[in-house]
Amino acid sequence: MSLFKRIVSKLTNQPEDDEQQSLEKLGDSLKNADLDYKFAQLFTHSGGFFNYCADEAEALHTLNQILKIEESHSVFCCDKDLQSFLDVVKIPYTSDLATQNDTAFISCEYLIAYDGRIMLSHNNILHYHSSRLPTKIIIIANISQIVNNLNDAMGKIKRTGNIKNLTSISGNHSKLDVAANNSTKLFLLLLED
User: Fold this and answer.
1) Distance separating alpha carbons of residues 192 and 52, to the nearest angstrom
2) Number of CB atoms found within 10 A of residue 123's CB
3) Is the N end or the C end of the chain the one with fewer CB atoms within 10 Å?
4) 21 CA to centre of own chain
5) pLDDT by residue for the chain (193 residues), tens digit each?
6) 55 in Cβ contact with 33 (< 8 Å)
7) CA dihedral defined by 66, 67, 69, 70, rounded to 10 degrees?
8) Distance separating alpha carbons of residues 95 and 77, to the nearest angstrom
9) Residues 6+ apart with CB under 8 A from 159
10) 92 with 83: CB under 8 angstroms?
11) DSSP string spanning 69-125?
């Protein structure tokens, strides 16, 4: 925490952000670790549920377990490939976000190892603001989507082009869009490429 923020927090009698400090310390301690290990540690430290899956069959099994444990009844899923997963586990889904959706099953653009965030775009959540997503979010990604930091992700996005409405979420929901919503559960299924 910067000196200015510390002084302001002392003057206003607000507690210092210990969670942010511990995340930064953990990130510093992992600076030489492999990107996938660093991402997993920071993602879970921020409140996310990390699930490594060796293949699609294991991802399907893990998805089914999460949906049962979380008692999901209606899923928002706009990705045709991911909808085939939901067809197999026989759970109702909608392609457009609806009020009855209690879970979202989506893909992502990149996994940011620097702070354990997940970058989303219009491709993943359509035109919806991330704060409108259900309180249970299941994301599926590949190890090749892990990048070191936001600059690396933005560089890749510039090269591919045509990606809009970028946002990021972490274990305690979105850090860019809205204040932390502790009731949101974020699950990640990380697949080998």
Assistant:
1) 8
2) 16
3) C
4) 20
5) 454 455 445 444 444 455 556 767 776 777 778 899 999 999 999 899 999 999 999 999 999 999 999 999 999 999 999 999 999 999 999 999 999 999 999 999 999 999 999 999 999 999 998 889 999 999 999 999 999 999 999 999 888 877 888 898 987 644 444 444 457 899 999 999 8
6) no
7) 100
8) 5
9) none
10) no
11) HTT---EE---HHHHHHHHHHT--EESS--TT--EEEE--SEEETTTTEEEE-HHHH
- Residue 118 has a CB neighbour count (10 Å cut-off) of 26
d(CA 130, CA 119) in angstroms, rounded, equals 11
Identity of residue 78: C
Helix 56-69 with 80-89: angle, nearest 10 deg: 60
Residue in the block written with tokens 């302001």: 8
Q: Characterise 89 by phi-psi region: left (phi > 0), alpha (psi -120 to 50), beta (else).
A: alpha
Q: Which two tokens stand for residue 185?
A: 């559960």
